[in-house]
Amino acid sequence: MRASVLIALVVAGAAWAWWARRRMQKRQLAWLVRAAGASARRGAIITAMSQSLAAFVAVVVLAFSVWVEEAHRVFWLRMPLAVLVIAIYVPYAAVLAPVRVNVKNLRRTPQRRMVESGARPDVADAIARAGRPFALIGSLIFLAAVTVLVWHHLRN
């Protein structure tokens, strides 16, 4: 039962992240292109800073949810906070994830989407390069959030 709950939540969370990433990608990439202007360096800095800040906030929220349950027995707050991290941060971190299957027009890379929205190719490449490591960090935070979500089932 315990492992099946964890596996079901991982599958459901991954499906949600994929769907939500597709919906928020256009806005996020347009914001990064506007903020970068014509400077590739500025685009990389803004991408790294915004993704770092979001990852830090997600980790703080997860740590707070664990602490609040352990120290104050407020168990009902742990689950909504973990779901909040899965629902908002994980798709945000996956926006600049590289495309694994490179079939000609099947899936467009984040760089191609930014160039189509008006960014210079060097700016799009710098933004995508700066955001790639955060897709992995987002996956690790996703696994931590799912663990926090089912924490009660794992420790009892």
Question: Would you write up a description of this structure?
Answer:
- This protein is mostly helical and 156 residues long.
- Helix content is 82%, strand content 0%.
- It contains six helices and no strands.
- It has helices spanning 2-36, 40-72, 75-93, 110-116, 121-149, 151-155.
- Helix 1 (2-36) crosses helix 3 and helix 3 packs antiparallel against helix 5 (121-149).
- The radius of gyration is 17 Å and the shape is elongated.
- The two termini are 12 Å apart.
Q: What would the average pLDDT be, to the nearest integer?
A: 88
Rg (CA only): 17 Å
How much of the sequence lies in strands comes to: under 5%
Identify low-pLDDT runs.
Answer: none
Could you give the distance between the termini? Answer: 12 Å
Structural class by sheet pairing and helices: mainly alpha
* Largest sheet descriptor: none
In N-to-C order, the SSE pattern is HHHHHH
Tell me, briefly, the overall form. Answer: elongated
Helix content: over 70%
What's the total number of strands? Answer: 0
Number of helices: 6
List descriptors.
elongated, 156 residues, 0% strand, mainly alpha, 6 helices
Write the layout of secondary structure elements.
Layout: H1 2-36, H2 40-72, H3 75-93, H4 110-116, H5 121-149, H6 151-155
Helix pairs in contact: 1-2, 1-3, 1-5, 2-3, 2-5, 3-5, 4-5
